[in-house]
TrEMBL record:
Superkingdom field: Bacteria
InterPro entries listed in its UniProt record: LapA_dom
Species assigned in the record: Nereida ignava
Residue ranges occupied by any Lipopolysaccharide assembly protein A domain in the UniProt entry: 44-97
Alphabetical list of Pfam families matching this protein: LapA_dom (PF06305)
Coiled-coil segments on the chain, per record: 76-110
Transmembrane segments: 7-31, 51-71
The protein's name in its UniProt record: Lipopolysaccharide assembly protein A domain-containing protein
Key word DNA damage present: no
Keywords: Cell membrane, Coiled coil, Membrane, Transmembrane, Transmembrane helix
């Protein structure tokens, strides 16, 4: 099983390297088109960066995966909160059961109390 995993990881690495080598051309990234940035009047939005295309592709994939992880984490908040509440209630009920069993077996011999608990 370990070798299958290494084979898959190696295949993915080869595919990523081939994609990177095939997309080495430089592209210009801008936050906004030049005319719109001048119209708004914010010089920071008029900046541009020259990057190889494969970095843009891999950066987009990484940003999408990260956004998906954050989205799922936020979506599952209700589930995690309900689980925490259920665990607190369970611990409280377990403490109450232990307290009631101790109260029921009060004044009895320890061996008899254990026998009563087992049945």
């Amino acid at each position: 099983m370990r070798y299958i995993r290494y084979g898959i990881i190696g295949s993915i690495a080869v595919v990523l390297i081939v994609v990177a080598l095939a997309n080495r051309g430089v592209v210009t990234l801008r936050i906004l088109p030049q005319e719109l940035a001048e119209l708004i009047g914010v010089p920071l939005l008029a900046r541009s960066v020259d990057l190889p295309l494969f970095l843009v592709i891999f950066g987009g994939i990484a940003a999408g995966v990260l956004l998906g992880f954050v989205w799922e984490w936020m979506r599952e908040h209700k589930i995690r909160a309900a689980k925490a509440t259920t665990e607190r209630e369970l611990k409280s009920l377990e403490r109450e059961v232990r307290r009631l069993k101790g109260k029921q077996n009060e004044g009895k011999d320890e061996v008899l109390a254990l026998l009563d608990d087992a049945s």
